[in-house]
Amino acid sequence: MLPKRVIGILTWREGLRFEEPAYLRKLVQTGQKLGAEIYLFSHQDVNVSARKIKGFIPKPNGGWMSKSFPWPEVVIDRYRRRVKEYIRLRNSDLFFFANSPFSKKWRVTNLLASDERVKRWIPETHVYEKGKVRNMLARHGLVYVKPGNGTGGRSILRVKSSGKDYSLSGCDKKHKHHVARIDTVEGVEKWVKTWVEEQRIRDGNFLVQQGLDLGLLRKHVVDVRLLIQKDERGEWTVTGCAIRMGEKGSATSNLHGGGKAIPFEWLMSRRFGEERGELIKQECYRLAFEVANTLEDYFGRMMEFGLDIGVDVDGRAWLIEVNPKPGREVFRQMGDMALYRKAIARPIQFALYLARNQARFLSL
Ligand SMILES: Nc1ncnc2c1ncn2[C@@H]1O[C@H](COP(=O)(O)OP(=O)(O)O)[C@@H](O)[C@H]1O
Ligand SMILES: [Mg+2]
């Protein structure tokens, strides 16, 4: 029998507490079923001189157990915190990673907005500074202000011009909802300035972005979550997409408390008819392939992306955000368990492909 391929999953750990225990448990179990020697580890588990790793695997009835594992042939990076020791590890050449380090939202948006292959899908975006909101409101009836390093829909503000006044709506860091009605654009500038100062995360900046009218359903913001992954032959493939529907009245579609997941085809054909719905889907796929290939040119080999795509009321597709370490719960929430399992198996299949072909990649 051939020896098993050894795959490590790098993630944050404190004691037996992991960042995404439910997902990581399924990921390891899926890897075991696919015949891999697979385990989780964190930065503190690496013994360089012995070339051994203290790895963690799920116990059958819940919880985790650890033992010493051989050095991984391929490492999947699922670490989502900016911890010093992790960054040092990433910058070392100790491991062969399936996915390269990625960058912050504002830098990625800037790169894509200036690349001929994909710029047509990127809403107009600027780094926040004095006068920018006013300037954007002169051109767009709807403007979004959001942190260049934020996640989970936090601190995102929507500014809407009605012609005679402006309405503002957003959730703060603690998910508290804020609304305001302001008469003048000077007043809006001032309100947004305070928002940015209060919501800033560490030294992060904010983006001012053309707002998209994503009201495909009455009173709800909806957007598309598309998962594009490398498969067992190392090729990009779209695993699936779903619609995320925000809470009634919310400025974002993020799922924290109350959002829902629904099938893409159902909503698009209801809104635009079956034929047009299919064309919109093809457009989203094209966007995904172009974006994935373009980003690999800048960042090196990647493994998967979760794309937030906005389809506006005219049926036009726009890229809102790129997640390099995406969740896949949206497929489970939608009730498509086959797709959900596929979305979990793909990273393992890709890592196995890399392990089998490693010599070829290392000689490049
Ligand atoms: N320019 C925009 N126009 C319309 N809606 C937007 C815009 N930017 C963000 N949103 C809404 O806010 C949500 C969260 O924004 P996103 O940039 O994905 O930040 P996060 O990292 O918090 O998920 C999006 O999924 C979308 O529903
Ligand atoms: Mg998002």
TrEMBL record:
SUPFAM superfamilies: Glutathione synthetase ATP-binding domain-like (SSF56059)
The protein's name in its UniProt record: YheC/YheD family protein
Organism: Brevibacillus brevis (strain 47 / JCM 6285 / NBRC 100599)
